[in-house]
């Protein structure tokens, strides 16, 4: 079964063709980073405008690279939430248009379910030798959740962030350090340049819960930057290269510690047979290394290019959803606050 997966929940316009939930026939991501870089963050109005102009060329490229005609596509899958309302609407309406014009089933997918199913691409999950239940850590720019996956499409929410998402914290701290957007890869790059350990930043703990909280960590970075004289940002108070590297390493260590400790705790509490990670922050090398080193169960980590937003993960999730539930109704809407599990 060949599924065209469309993803426009945030700032990337993405389309991919996936065969049988695993084989990546094509995977095209058109990034708007250069548009948002100068503002240091995502501007929703720019996102939806760019999706409008890029959507059709990206879908055409995905079909072309897969060497398939529309008649050889068996279903159109699209992210219908969570995400930015305007961005989601462009994808949902484009998918409805393609599905109607080509007379194909429409399959609505939750973005977070997509991140989870990136682990089924390229046969990764089968190769891992692990089994359900899995503890899934989904860490992105908008979400940080621990989900117990008991079987295909069967989820229980174990923890979420009480304030900022992990990716959001990376992006905000990168701005304080005068690094580019998105901040995660920039902080990782700087952290890799040093092994000098400054005073650690705090690891916020919420007693009696697996929930995350990152706003205190972010505030701790800002306070220390103020003490060190490079925040608030002015024309002539940039931190030195070594200060940036040392902050980046200390911040990354703190955030990785928070993510890893709760994930391992969830494995113990819920008898997880494996750990699955997904979302942009799961591309982080230090997080991947630390989890693999400290976990007693296998860690399934899609390659970094499949952790950040893409259409392939939507095509993979749609294969399992379509098999189980069939197509989605035509009145499917974009739902910015859609949740995966309660
Ligand atoms: O899943 P994603 O591509 O989009 C959302 O659904 O939000 O995640 C984007 C987030 C950004 O905050 C970005 O800074 C972060 O993922 N990110 C990383 C890395 N690559 C992307 N964070 C840490 N280390 C990375 N290597
Ligand atoms: Zn995402």
Sequence-ordered SSE layout with sheet pairings:
Blueprint: E1 2-7, E2 12-19, E3 23-31, H1 33-37, H2 44-66, E4 75-81, H3 85-102, E5 106-110, H4 111-117, H5 124-128, E6 134-139, E7 144-151, E8 154-160, H6 166-176, H7 183-191, H8 215-227, H9 241-270, E9 274-278, H10 285-294, E10 299-300, H11 304-307, H12 312-325
Helix pairs in contact: 2-3, 4-12, 6-7, 6-8, 6-9, 7-9, 9-10
Bound molecules: 5'-O-[(R)-(carboxyoxy)(hydroxy)phosphoryl]adenosine and zinc ion.
Describe this entry's structure for a reader:
The chain is an alpha/beta fold and 342 residues long. The protein is built from twelve helices and ten strands. It has a five-stranded mixed sheet, sandwiched between helices. It has a five-stranded mixed sheet with strand order 8-7-6-9-10. A hairpin with a 3-residue loop joins strand 2 and strand 3. Helix 2 packs parallel to helix 3, helix 6 crosses helix 7 and helix 6 runs antiparallel to helix 9. The model has no long low-confidence stretch (mean pLDDT 97). It binds 5'-O-[(R)-(carboxyoxy)(hydroxy)phosphoryl]adenosine and zinc ion. Zinc ion binds next to helix 4.
